Amino acid sequence: MTPVLRVEGVDFVREGNPILRGVSLTVRAGEHWALLGANGAGKSTLLSLLGAFAHPTRGVVEVLGHRLGRVDMRELRSYVGHVDPRHAPRSPLALWEVVLTGLTNTAEWVPRWGPTAEQVALAHRLIDLLGLGERRQAQWPTLSQGERGRALIARALMPSPRLLLLDEPATGLDVAGREQFLERVDLLQTTLPDLASVLVTHHLEELPPGTTHVLLLRGGRCLAAGPADEVLTSDRVSTCFDHPIRLTRTGGRWSVRAGEPRGG
Ligand SMILES: Nc1ncnc2c1ncn2[C@@H]1O[C@H](COP(=O)(O)OP(=O)(O)OP(=O)(O)O)[C@@H](O)[C@H]1O
Q: What is this model's ipTM?
């Protein structure tokens, strides 16, 4: 089966600066990847290539079997569920209406556009799946940051994408908000077993327990990529973040604390 994403030997250069160097990655249906790395490692840049927002300078990026550079990027983007935490409709739409704008891929409700009864029913099912049933009529500006984050996942899932991209989705959430978010991502992964996802974070505590694979980025290069339990060792994570770190996994979740300097 064609991989959901295929990245081969990608370089990305901006204003003469190499931002990604020789990065390769293959994501298949049902896999949940995390891109981990320190500030400035290149995570968001890689995610923008995976979401067909930018072309690589060199190398191959195939999204849903389509090679960037040979397809209409705008059309391709409409098949990828992209959760952008900066999304902000200007008009005071209700939560369920914001979820439906995932079908038109617009920030606002498109005038004269009307969803089918089936599409409305899907929106409500996704709202329930993300644990927002009691807030479906609430206006966007009145939602908490955690509720908005989950609503944006429901919105991104409206076109039934095969791929979901999440850029630091738990940033700014309090402990309860983060835990509710992780619980719903977990439920999502079991409810939609063929969905693939790529999540960017620099906090290992924010990794959903269903994370199957990890790519560690350091200075624009891939330090390691593969099954999460193989890649996430204290040594590798210490190298990735240039800091001695002790990593533990309990109940499917990862936690870190400063460790002894290696060799010391
Ligand atoms: N358009 C651009 N022109 C020049 N440099 C850029 C551009 N976009 C990003 N960069 C640089 O590329 C590097 C990687 O940026 P990127 O945002 O991908 O990192 P990141 O790993 O997502 O970081 P963070 O965790 O801080 O969000 C940074 O040093 C950044 O300053």
A: 0.93
